[in-house]
């Protein structure tokens, strides 16, 4: 972005007072993104300090409004009233999953990140073994979609296999009465997820530091996989899940390339359409 484009952006921000209306969260988040890019460019170009200060002041003003909203949502969650409050903000002008599949991020991720307010993970993330997939959070719009489509009840236990920082169990625990468990190999991610659950008073979310291959699945009724592993590792975990079906019906919910592998499992039936780039849900159809 050159200097005059940046000036025009700043002029537009200052003119558009609607950006200060609390309800215009999405527009503010999108503007903050543009201002962030502009500030980075200005830094690279060694832009005049006055312009940078002006951009920073506009950024901080808009950011402060969002922070107040995130704090308000956090307070509601802490008092057990988070679902309505969060869903109210998330549905305001959201690009629904029908409009936007794929694995990119949007303003809902900024909303979720502001609400969950994770501490930065400790340094020294361990390298993963072959077939394990590096950490990348499920885009928030897909988590909202999964929560809606799964209609989790108080008797459900959702297990996120390879839960990273815990976005899925945390959001599901806020929005539903189900007990939500994250299983993750990386200690630093588990510590952040636990800290977040505690700060939000989420008694129905917990995080286990373990390799999914040796985890106890016996309490799970719904298993979520955002392609945490591939190849033989995925196959062996699916075999273990198939054995659970002898005890009780289960559902699997997937996103990403693991979906096509899961779709080929003969003990599962898709509920609705199957898409690699969207949430797919499968139900066990007979005892394996
Ligand atoms: C693509 S990320 C998904 C993160 C999370 N489920 C989400 O959707 O936001 C995959 C995660 O699985 C973890 N992982 C990979 N293999 C694992 C294993 N065998 N046991 C536990 N965690 C594993 C990785 O460390 C990473 O955090």
Automatic annotation (TrEMBL):
<feature type="domain" description="DOT1">
    <location>
        <begin position="142"/>
        <end position="201"/>
    </location>
</feature>
<dbReference type="Pfam" id="PF08123">
    <property type="entry name" value="DOT1"/>
</dbReference>
<keyword id="KW-0489">Methyltransferase</keyword>
<dbReference type="InterPro" id="IPR025789">
    <property type="entry name" value="DOT1_dom"/>
</dbReference>
<dbReference type="InterPro" id="IPR026170">
    <property type="entry name" value="FAM173A/B"/>
</dbReference>
<dbReference type="InterPro" id="IPR029063">
    <property type="entry name" value="SAM-dependent_MTases_sf"/>
</dbReference>
<keyword id="KW-0808">Transferase</keyword>
<keyword id="KW-0949">S-adenosyl-L-methionine</keyword>
<protein>
    <recommendedName>
        <fullName>DOT1 domain-containing protein</fullName>
    </recommendedName>
</protein>
